[in-house]
Design brief:
single chain; alpha+beta; 3-stranded antiparallel beta sheet; 16 helices; globular
Length: about 400
Amino acid sequence: MIREDQLSIRLSPNEEDKNNLRVDIVSTRKSDLAQIFIGKTPMEALPMIPRLYSICGMAHSYAAIQACQSLDDSRSSAIHEALCLNEMLREHVLHIALHWTKQIGTKAPRDQMPVLVQAFEAISLKLLAYAQFDSQPKEKLEAALLVAKLDRITELLDALFFGHALKGWKDLKTSLDLVVWCGDDNGIIARMINQSIRSDHQDIAAIEPAFLPDLSKQDWQQLLQRNKGSAFCDQPDWQDAPHETGSLQRQRQHPLIRALMPAGKANLLARQTARILDLLSVMAQLRDQLKALDGYNAAPILLQKNGAGVGVVETARGRLVHAIDLQDGLIRHWSILAPTEWNFHPNGAAAQSLSRLTPGPGLEEQARQIMLAIDPCIAFDLLDATGLGKGASYA
């Protein structure tokens, strides 16, 4: 039985292509959750968004606000962008702490993880005070306190994840640079990367990704207006094909990623490295954003009453889009297009990568590593139907 909001992945022999596995991906998640807001005003619906989405709640909120916001009002953007960057960084950190530690056979740093989480929450709570729809602080925001919290997060990540060698990542340009940096297995990241480098199966699932292009809001609006049914958001396509979004797509032009994809193919190592580069990029963006907010004075958000709007926000897992139609101040239509639906499309990046695997001992573990590298935002279940293993569920 498939649980609610879950991906079910079945790997089986492919009768039409003996060189690849057949991969069947079924999702029980439907994209029409926001239809509960039909007939409500934006001021009634928007405060409810973070309670509906336990993962990437800030990103969902900001995308919805953008979609409802008056075209000439950008005053609230800075505070919400900082909230989303903070959430994005936290998601990357939690992924490494929860999944990479398990993959390398160690435990998450339990003593320091609560400190990390508290620092993220402190930043979020302070910013949220300036993002409320009703009561907002009268005093201006002091960025120095938030930057100090981020400094503490950086110190902890340097010690716990990077083996006190975080600064060295800015100089990594080639695969040899990466091998040298990881040389002594010092830290969670070095051990994870070394495990992938030494693996004899890391290139099996390499594919040439079709990256989601940087579409404008007008492009998104036209695309979603033409496809208002939930079927499109459940299995989206651009120019009749699914595309990939996320860390690898954002970091694809980085010299290190280009060095790890010499033939344009992304393997497990390239995906893991892209996550680290993305983490560092988001951390730098958040620092700049927090500094720019010094002296920020809260301002009410201006919402439009009629028309169609689109909100686009980057999350740790990829691009999130909300499209909302308003008439006489009431919501008439609301579409949500999440990155998991792109990346885990039945013919998307995950399906293509999984199809390259070879049946036999270790198939489920290899498949699990691919799933976690591409990273769905819901639980998944793997079933090896090749006759050499059985499935297991993973959060």
